[in-house]
């Protein structure tokens, strides 16, 4: 009988131990579920915060793009109205917002070129080409300064030829302005036969496009090349543009 009592006590203790183990497992399971729920909640909050920050960043980027393009466009409009100083400021603001805005560098360089601030214009054009190497208008404008500037320290016939040839290649030798620049570059490099031939081609294209003013200016430069004389900006003829 004593043995039976001991056996029953042992079974009760064993069952109590099992119940305790089950309770412990259940506790840990519930605790883990609570922890997992907390982690999931934190992750969800962080993800939401990240998405909000990302959306804010995207909105800010879009706003900046719109801002610097608006500044550049306003500069173009002001230049057309002859408000050059204001145009320069707006181009500079556009560049300050986006230092890799090639069009703003180009536009600023063109204005400075017109003011004969050649060193500054060269810096703008070279920066634009670093950003956009085949920027045709910039290739042409930079070549024009290097070929025709009255300052001998700025002129570089060989570099002008390379730039002007690239501009002509990119436009299939179909634009009289590009050929006009190439002719001036050849003349500065002392290649007068090529300068004459190129200027003659430019002249014919200008006539075909019914641009009498450009044709006349090219013809005047052509006469210089025939006399083995390069063109200089101080002669006050037209500076080529793409159109």
Instruction: Just name the CATH architecture of the largest domain.
Output: Alpha Horseshoe
**Topology-level CATH name of the largest domain:** Serine Threonine Protein Phosphatase 5, Tetratricopeptide repeat
Q: List low-pLDDT spans.
A: 55-64, 235-239
| Strand percentage | under 5%
Please identify the top-level CATH class of the largest domain: Mainly Alpha
GO molecular function, one term: protein O-acetylglucosaminyltransferase activity
Pfam families: TPR_11, TPR_4
GO biological process, one term: protein O-linked glycosylation
InterPro entries: OGT, TPR-4, TPR-like_helical_dom_sf, TPR_rpt
Briefly say what this structure is.
The protein is an all-alpha fold.
Verbal overview:
The protein is mainly α and 243 residues long. It has two domains: 1-133, Tetratricopeptide repeat domain (Serine Threonine Protein Phosphatase 5, Tetratricopeptide repeat, Alpha Horseshoe), CATH 1.25.40; 157-243, Serine Threonine Protein Phosphatase 5, Tetratricopeptide repeat, CATH 1.25.40. Helix content is 79%, strand content 0%. The longest helix has 79 residues, at 2-80.
């Amino acid at each position: 009988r004593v043995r039976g009592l001991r056996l029953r006590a042992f079974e009760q203790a064993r069952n109590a131990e099992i119940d305790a183990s089950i309770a412990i497992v259940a506790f840990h399971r519930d605790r883990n579920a609570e922890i997992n729920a907390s982690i999931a909640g934190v992750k969800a909050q962080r993800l939401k915060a990240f998405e909000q920050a990302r959306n804010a960043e995207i909105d800010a980027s879009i706003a900046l793009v719109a801002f610097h393009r608006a500044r550049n466009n306003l500069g173009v409009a002001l230049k057309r109205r002859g408000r050059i100083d204001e145009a320069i400021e707006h181009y500079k603001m556009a560049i300050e917002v986006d230092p890799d805005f090639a069009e703003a560098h180009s536009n600023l360089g063109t204005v400075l070129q017109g003011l004969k601030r050649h060193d500054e214009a060269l810096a703008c054009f070279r920066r634009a080409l670093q950003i956009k190497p085949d920027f045709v208008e910039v290739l042409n404008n930079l070549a024009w300064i290097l070929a025709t500037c009255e300052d001998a320290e700025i002129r570089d016939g060989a570099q002008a030829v390379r730039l002007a040839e690239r501009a002509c290649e990119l436009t299939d030798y179909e634009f009289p302005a590009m050929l006009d620049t190439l002719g001036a570059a050849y003349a500065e490099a002392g290649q007068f036969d090529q300068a004459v031939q190129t200027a003659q081609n430019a002249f014919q294209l200008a006539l075909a496009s019914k641009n009498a003013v450009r044709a006349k200016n090219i013809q005047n430069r052509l006469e210089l090349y025939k006399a083995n004389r390069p063109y200089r900006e101080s002669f006050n003829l037209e500076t080529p543009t793409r159109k």
